[in-house]
């Protein structure tokens, strides 16, 4: 999850108070007067001074009055964490990918570790990446547990947004039924979210 703050934003000749959200790849602001959703790749200029974060993007600009958070948010925008860091995948980690076809993810994964398989059946893994598009897909979670190292994790990758057929709450409920616990949510891509499931410490 990203950082959030209640603050004033100056944009388009208006000043409004609302909630600012610093997500993995975008900066969001919501208030009754207007909404902003600024992808990091759209940012053309960035300056922080005296607690104000000035963001230029696509021919426009907005100033976020963030106080002491201004410099911290600027640093995170300038140097966003890579997906592998957020997922906890380190060099040499044993990983099974069961149908996740995101090319950017697969490229970054193979650059991080050479121990990548497209099946989880051959041995125990540090991580298993499992795509869930429908509620029926969740039924396979119990069968994935024997393919994990005791301190390993299943990352359930599913579509995000209003049209998604499976919500995070559905994954969490299925995890509990399978004897797993959820520990982290990561924005996997612009269209996908990932939920980390692990074996409870008491059962390892």
Describe this structure in words.
This protein is an alpha+beta fold and 204 residues long. The protein has two domains: 3-78, Pleckstrin-homology domain (PH domain)/Phosphotyrosine-binding domain (PTB) (PH-domain like); 83-203, 3-Layer(aba) Sandwich (Rossmann fold), CATH 3.40.50.150. 20% of the residues lie in helices and 42% in strands. The chain has five helices and 13 strands. The radius of gyration is 20 Å and the shape is elongated. The model has no long low-confidence stretch (mean pLDDT 93).
Q: Any low-confidence stretches, pLDDT <50, length ≥5?
A: none
Count helical runs: 5
Give the second-level CATH assignment, the architecture of the largest domain: 3-Layer(aba) Sandwich
Order of helices and strands: EEEEEEEHHEHEEHEHEE
> What is the CATH third-level topology name of the largest domain?
Rossmann fold
**Roughly what fraction of the amino acids lie in strands?**
35-45%
Q: Mind telling me the CATH class of the largest domain?
A: Alpha Beta
Widest sheet, order of strands? 4-3-2-1-7-6-5
